[in-house]
Each structure stands twice: as structure tokens, then as C-alpha cells.
Amino acid sequence: MSRVTLTQFLIEQQRNQKMIPADLRLLIEVVARAVKTISVHVGKGAVAGLLGNAGTDNVQGEAQKKLDVVANEVLLHANEWGGHLAAMASEELDDPSYIPKTYPKGEYLLVFDPLDGSSNIDVNISVGTIFSVLRCPANMEPTEEAFLQTGRRQVAAGYAVYGPSTMLVLTVGTGTHGFTLDREFGSWVLTHGDIRIPEDTKEFAINASRSRFWEPPVQRYIAELQQGADGPRGQDFNMRWVASMVADVHRILARGGIFLYPLDEKNRPRGGHLRLLYEANPMAMVVEQAGGAASTGREPVLDLVPQGLHQRVPVILGSRHEVERVVAYHAE
Ligand code: AHG
Ligand code: MN
Ligand code: MN
Ligand code: MN
């Protein structure tokens, strides 16, 4: 069996599509290596004493899990010495992390959610890592301002999901491709080339415990789905909610669906729940590159001009026709 590894895939992209300069390829390989390390830590769980809280809070006031902290440090240390980055930003850091003076500085900016779905760590349910790559604007210091670029400017984005198998799903703007970690060989094998999200779906994902806070367009949309074959949609819909964005988005890439973390009365003061730079934007690029759509309900996620590193936004993404319907309800 001839197996295409991540390295071969990236070199071919560099050669044929001219999409990946050598230092971007290095960056992606380093992220993939870091993710492999995180996968080992996640897999050891209680044996390594890695479950539970770290006893600290992050900038958003969330209690950090031990694995949030470990995954963050793995990504920071893996990426600081390669010479490909100008700076990094993370859910778990208040401010950008600069490359130590002892190492050369590159032109890229790396943003990540080191451990997504951390409420699922202690219950042994899939978690993940999300990342986004931007170019540092020319003649600009890599301060917070440099990171505040629209999602359309991402040069690469992706996520890892630590599930029954560990997968890396990646886009460099030439479709969305999935690699599965072969644990014995330690290599990433291309198993899901050019993933396409079905345009229609009978599956939705939303935290329905918040329904009383939703805005009218979301109330209407979900009510119609719940009426099933007896309602205006004339068919039954099924619901899933993992509460790890990576796992919910991964399911949608695999078999279609719509994911909503909308604006509601409770999260309105913060602008939404999910974070634009390291959750919404990378996932929106992955989904759009797979033929799906990603919106706030009012505009495409990728068109938002970020106002801050940890800005939150509403997110509605997945099967194109369903996302378009929710957007239409918002416009009415
Ligand atoms: P994180 O663990 O990185 O802070 O992200 C958690 C996010 C996301 O993964 C998930 O979709 C959502 O929060 C879950 O929210 P609920 O607790 O409202 O279900
Ligand atoms: Mn968190
Ligand atoms: Mn997250
Ligand atoms: Mn996180």
C-alpha cells in the first residue's frame, strides 16, 4: 500500500500548487509534531496525573485545566526555535508571545487554542487543538495589532482531534485534507483527501440548554427543525452536541451538519461565546475550503475585522444550505 504522509503532501503542494513556501511547510510540520506530543499527553490522562484543574485562570477568567497549560507549553516551545515565526498568540496567554532573542525571527504569526473542549478532559471525551497562520504585515512589529487581520488572510488553518484515533485536518487554501496519526510509525497518513461537506443535512448541533436566551431567528430555525416531519421542513432532524468544537466540526466534515453557537442574551455583553482568532476563523477556513459556509448570522466569519486577540463572535457553520437559511432568517 503506498501511503502519502503529511511531509510528502506538503512537499507536493509546495512544488505543484506553489501554495506553500518552504518556511510555511516547516511551520506546519512543527505544529504537526507538537500536536503528536499533545496527543501522547492527552492519551495518558490520569496515569500521568494530567486530569483536573491547574489552579490558575486564563485571561478570559476560565479555570485552566492541567492539559490546557501543558498543551500551550508544548506548542510554544516547539515553535520558538525554528526561525519561521514572528510571534504566537494563544487562548491561554494574555498577550502575544515573542520569539526569544536567541532565535531568528520569521514572517509568520501562529495563533492557537491549545486544548479545545477542556470541559471534556476529565470525562475522557474527545478534545482537540485549533490553529491559524497569518503573515506578519511588512514593516510591522508582531504586537497584538499585527494579529488583528481578517480570517480571509489566513495562509493556513486546521485542527487536531484527539479521539479514538488522532487526526490532523488542514487547509492551506487548496481544499481541506485529513491525516490520521499512525501511532506505531509516528507518521501522519493522508486518509481523507479533499473533504467535501454535503450541502444538505438532517443533523444539527447547538447547546439547547441556552434556548431561552436565543434571538428570534435562531428560535425559529431550531423550532422548525424540532417539528421534524410535521413542521415546515417536512423531515426529521437529529441533534448532536459534544461540547468540544473540534469534535462537533469534525463530525460535520465527515457527514454534514450545522453547528451553532449563536449570539444570545447571556453572551451578548461578550459578543458571543467562541473566540474569533483561534476558534471561529480557523474553523471557518477549514469549513469553507470543504465547500461549507461559516457565518455569524449577519456576515461571513472570515470577513470580520478583529478588534482584539480574545474577541468572541457568534458562529454558525457547516452544510451550506442550512447556514444560508439561518442567515436568511437573520436578514428578515
Ligand atoms: P475551550 O475548551 O477551548 O475553552 O473551548 C470550549 C468551547 C468549544 O469547544 C465548545 O464548542 C464550547 O466551548 C462548549 O460550550 P458549552 O459549555 O456551552 O457547551
Ligand atoms: Mn478555555
Ligand atoms: Mn476552544
Ligand atoms: Mn482551549
List keywords for this structure.
D-Maltodextrin-Binding Protein, domain 2; five-stranded mixed beta sheet; binds manganese (II) ion; Fructose-1,6-Bisphosphatase, Chain A, domain 1; single chain; binds 2,5-anhydro-1,6-di-O-phosphono-D-glucitol; 17 strands; alpha+beta; 332 residues; eight-stranded mixed beta sheet; 2 domains; 24% strand; 31% helix; 8 helices
Summarize the structure.
This protein has 332 residues and is of the alpha+beta class. Helices cover 31% and strands 24% of the residues.
Low confidence ranges: none
The biggest beta sheet reads: 8 strands, mixed
Overall structural domain count:
2
Mean pLDDT: 97
What string, H for helix and E for strand, traces the elements in order? HHEEHEEEEHEEEEEHEHEEHEEEH
What is the CA-atom radius of gyration, in angstroms?
Answer: 19 Å
Structural class: alpha+beta
The CATH homologous superfamily of the largest domain is termed Fructose-1,6-Bisphosphatase, subunit A, domain 1
Quaternary form: single chain
> In what range is the share of β-strand residues?
15-25%
Number of helices: 8
Number of strands: 17
What is the CA-CA span between the terminal residues?
Answer: 54 Å
**Which overall shape is indicated by the principal axes computed on the Cα atoms?**
globular
Helical fraction equals 25-40%
